[in-house]
Design goal:
With 123 residues, the chain is mainly alpha-helical. Helices cover 59% and strands 9% of the residues. Strands 1-3-2 form a three-stranded antiparallel β-sheet. Helix 1 packs across helix 2.
């Protein structure tokens, strides 16, 4: 995993920023620190994953990153729910359906009276 210290230092100096802004400002120094044959897109992807896995950083949404130390534990939990909650809930529902063999094949979907919608119905 790549070290995210450059990103942490950049955020400390400049505040919360989008990933692409962070990457643009730290990539030259990062490339100077590592010895690799990987191309930039792969290193960028590895660096993004490293940021996700780092305990000091938090993604606020819309690819904006900040330091966790700037937030209370409750704020961090709220951010995680807002950023990842709906995706996690969808994946959990799909897994639950698969685990209980409640998924529909293509023919069953066409015949199904159930309509799946992402938003709540208006009352």
């Amino acid at each position: 995993m790549l070290s995210v210290d450059l990103a942490i230092d950049f955020i400390k100096k400049n505040g919360a920023k989008k990933f692409d802004v962070i990457w643009t400002n730290i990539k030259k120094e990062l490339f100077d620190q590592i010895d690799t044959i990987k191309k930039e897109p792969e290193i960028k992807s590895d660096f993004f994953i490293s940021m996700i896995n780092d305990e000091k950083l938090i993604m606020l949404g819309n690819e904006i990153w900040d330091l966790k130390e700037n937030y209370s534990l409750q704020e961090i939990e709220d951010i995680k729910v807002n950023v990842f909650g709906s995706q996690i809930e969808k994946e959990d529902q799909i897994d639950l359906l698969k685990d209980n063999d409640l998924t529909l094949d293509d023919e069953e979907v066409e015949d199904s009276p159930i309509v799946f919608e992402d938003s709540e119905e208006d009352n």
